[in-house]
Design brief:
By secondary structure, this protein is an alpha/beta fold. It has one domain (27-239): 3-Layer(aba) Sandwich (Rossmann fold), CATH 3.40.50. It has 9 helices and 8 strands. Strands 3-2-4-1-5-6 form a 6-stranded mixed beta sheet. A two-stranded antiparallel sheet has the order 7-8. Helix 4 packs parallel to helix 5 and helix 8 (155-172) packs across helix 9 (186-197). It is globular and about 60 Å long.
Length: 243
Amino acid sequence: MLSTMTQPQRGPASNAFNQAFLSGIEGTLELVLVRHGQQSIPSAPNARIGDSVDAPLSELGREQARLVGERFATESIDAVYSSGLSRAFDTGAAIGSHHGLEPVVVDNLREIGMFRDVPPDQTAAEALGVDYLAGVRERMARERSWDVFPLTESSAEFSKRVINAFEEIIARHEGEAARVVVACHGGVINAYTGYIIETSNDMFFRPAHASVHLVCAKGWFRALHSLNDTRHLETEKGSFVTY
């Protein structure tokens, strides 16, 4: 009698939720989104636009990439994708190296084109003015929309290319019960996970460097399973969590 009472419920409601949230559904694709490790860029206000676009990993960022690579060293990984920016590619390579995989570059996974129409040899403050720049940054803190920034890729344009890039990856693995790593950027992770949960904010949370986020996909369904997992960055030597 006791064993009958403790059997899991598998009625119509349970089945609908399993499908909607891809819980225990066979043939589900797991997308492991990983933000790149910390990048090395000149400190503001001296950072020229051209220096910040493809900033490499810092020494700490390389250690973060190593740690996230070790996290997945004993787990099955079927493919690794990354943006073409070095900090994302090198983070993806640190994961793929344990599995004999080199990241496949998807250029549309690159970060938001911040101040992309500012001359690369200028700083944002030089192009816009110190007070003006401070004002739009205050707006970003309140509104969390990329559209507050002038001379920048629009929210709609950014969101469209990012969502399409992820959907392209999903289409490549249609019907596979696979685990795919996508090494990319904080804005990119917000754009795709925000699309899934239908938030109006371009940035609804702040991903840590080398943090892990899990999305599942099958057929028409997309489900967000976790955000900002950083347990691999908490070590015996201390915490390597940065933002």
